[in-house]
Amino acid sequence: MAPRRLDVDSLAAVLPPGGRVLVGACSGESLVLAEAVERAGEALGAMTFTGIFVPGLNTHTYLANPECRVETFFLTPELKAAGARVKFLPLCYGAILKRLRSIPIDAALFMATPPDSSGVCGFGPISDFLAEIWPRIPVRVAHINPRLPQVASSRNIPFDALTGYLEAEQDLLEISDSADDSISRAIGERVASFAPDGATIQIGLGKIPGAVLRALRGRRGLKIHSGLIPEAVCDLEDAGALAAGVAVTGGVAIGSQRLYQRVGGPAYRFEPVSHTHAPRVLMGLEKPVAINSALEVDLFGQAYAEMGPNGLMSGPGGASDFARGIWVAGGLRIVALAASAAKGKISRIVAPGEAIGPVSLGRMDTDIVVTEHGAADLRGLDHHERARALIAIAPIEHRDRLAERWAALADKF
Q1: Where are the beta strands (DSSP E) in 2-147?
Q2: CA dihedral in degrees (363, 185, 373, 319; nearest 10)?
Q3: Most buried residue among 2, 212, 346, 398 by CB atoms closer than 10 A?
Q4: Which residues contact 316 (CB under 8 A, 6 or more apart)?
Q5: What is the pLDDT of residues 169-210, one digit of tens each?
Q6: Cβ within 8 Å of residue 275, ≥6 positions away
């Protein structure tokens, strides 16, 4: 049966009232479908929406009526403000995939490319979860978007497998790459010293990860295997730093139109989490280096990346998945962060018990911590040596206090 052509006022007619809906969000969120959900209002009943909603990128809540609920794996400001109607599950990417495979999902809302000559649509550079699990979802509603790049991927969807569709043009959602400053450049250069020619890089999103990639422009033969493909990968491509004939592999691209115009080329490939984050795949990477950022690191070497002074800002994401897989592969796990905040008043290297929020990466998940003051190589160190190495890369004006706090714990080790 051919899929039904829809408009923003007919979405409720194909969605099961009160069901669970997986939303294709992140950079590929359909603003047309988000508007259609809001317009459907009471007709949706007590529906639950779930997906990867990224702070600073996805602002819709999908709370179309007082009975609607959202289950999210990242906590945006808009979802946080919605209070008890939003359930936040702080799961790593492997656990998210396991959950989405195991719970009933009644419908999916997502963006797709127009069908090709074989009648197949692509998911564009957003292949993390939905691209794999759509066959077990009975109702599939697509926003067919001519501006969505057609990318290389093993996962697509036949047009005839859609329940319904609507057509509209929309640019992918953008997060502009931040310009490097002296601190991020210093951190980037220090991190880059640990990534040799031919390394395979996993990287996160943000100012420091971008600076790290730009600091790697002088390398040659680099490969990218990451859950996220950020804007600064374009700088590596332009500099000739990437390995010839090896596609940049990721699950999602987040950046500006500059990046989105590249991802349809042969240098890029997008695969679901079952590939990008799979231990069996990570074990086969050549010279893997995981580079992630954090808000704080304590003197045990534990990294905290999810909660700031104003509360939760994120979920754990995929960093722990990569930390485990790259450890098995004999690779290197690096956490990079600025040494201070609030113009030097706050140290982001903190004493045990001072960090805010849950541990994002345990002390066994991190090999090296880098700030603008240096690199603390924690491999093979005891507790006291780890603390001294981390104090040495803290802000100078905070080091004495950190040493005093650690000394108060000395008789416990």
Answers
A1: 4-5, 20-23, 48-51, 69-72, 86-88, 107-112, 120-122, 139-144
A2: 0
A3: 212
A4: 90, 91, 92, 305, 306, 358, 360
A5: 999 999 988 888 999 999 999 999 999 999 999 999 899 999
A6: 154, 249, 281
Q: Which of 228, 179, 246 is nearest to 237 (CA)?
A: 246
Q: Is 50:72 a contact under the CB 8 Å cutoff? A: yes
Q: Helices 182-192 and 207-215 meet at what angle, rounded to 10?
A: 50
* CB half-sphere exposure, 304, CA atoms < 13 A: 23
Phi/psi of residue 170, each to 5°? -155, 135
Q: How confident is the model at residue 62 (pLDDT cuts 50, 70, 90)?
A: very high
DSSP string, 312-349: E----BTHHHHHHHHHHTT-EEEEE--SEETTTTEESE
* pLDDT, tens only, 267-283: 999 999 999 999 999 99
CB–CB of 81/310 below 8 Å? no
Q: Quick check: helix, strand or coil at residue 192?
A: helix
Q: Is the pTM value of this prediction over 0.90?
A: yes
